[in-house]
Amino acid sequence: MMAGHRPRVLYITGWMRSGSTVLGNVLNELPGVLHVGELHYLWQNGVLHTGTNSTCGCGLGLRACPLWSSVLHAATARTTPEADARLMVTRQHTLLRTRHTRARLAEACGTARPAPGTEQHLDRMTDVYRLLGTRGGERLVVDGSKYPAEAAALLGRTDVETRVVHIVRDPRATALSYRRAKHYIGPMSAARSTAYWLAFNLASECVGRAAADRYLRIRHEDLARRPEAVVTQVLRFAGLDDPSPVDAFGKVGLTGNHTVTGNPDRLHRGDTLIRPDERWRTQLPGRDLTTATCIAAPLLPRYGYPLLSARP
């Protein structure tokens, strides 16, 4: 393991299309804060080129980007990048899927011995975080990978300071978003997207129960309606006292980022207005509305979402 400072990581968990890219890019505008997007896919997309997208948020290929080429070179100096990436991806599939969250939490809490390969995988993740902490993330590295098992495993490390933000969104809004392909992200049925929504949020809840002092849950809808207040809340939770980069009207200037992957909106630059998106109330077909509501029903009241939503 590399010697050096103890990096501070804000790990975002929850299901996709919930606003993690917007939140991360807003935080990225602060000095010493580096939003790296879905770092989980660095090895699959950036090295092996077997994922859906291998473009950095700066517009270059990940291995052509000065930041990521430097990180990959330093992190894989003991072996070839391809061999290292294959091992990392294999361990991700065998140790860090959503179904592994409880096992990783038990290890993090010291009630179970780590599964073979877990500590070695976390060593390499921590190496990458430490490298990022010397390349723009000196105060905070924001990882929007959204894998609850990764968040759980990282909570057990003493060589990285991890705090977890769990972001949720009404599953019917997510279902509408997934009805259409978005650049390199394909469509998904309401049943499938909501089943994932339920699984990822339940697993994230387990993380919150195990480490309540290092866990914060926010809603996409609150971020959209009160962005300045919610971003400030996240900053204080992360241990930063900066003012929010978003003004009282929801406006923020985005200058660029080095996100590994994520929502294609991560490539947007310039003035951006954060505002509510309630199109699902009128555009989501009735069958999909019913499907998403029924599957998500166990968690809807907990997050403040009504079971019955009248169409305007």
UniProtKB/TrEMBL annotation:
Coiled-coil parts of chain: none
GO biological process: N-acetylglucosamine metabolic process; sulfur compound metabolic process
Domain of life: Bacteria
Gene3D superfamilies to which the protein is assigned, alphabetical: P-loop containing nucleotide triphosphate hydrolases
A GO molecular-function annotation: N-acetylglucosamine 6-O-sulfotransferase activity
Name of this chain's protein: Sulfotransferase family protein
Organism phylogeny: Bacteria, Bacillati, Actinomycetota, Actinomycetes, Kitasatosporales
InterPro entries per record: Gal/GlcNAc/GalNAc_ST, P-loop_NTPase
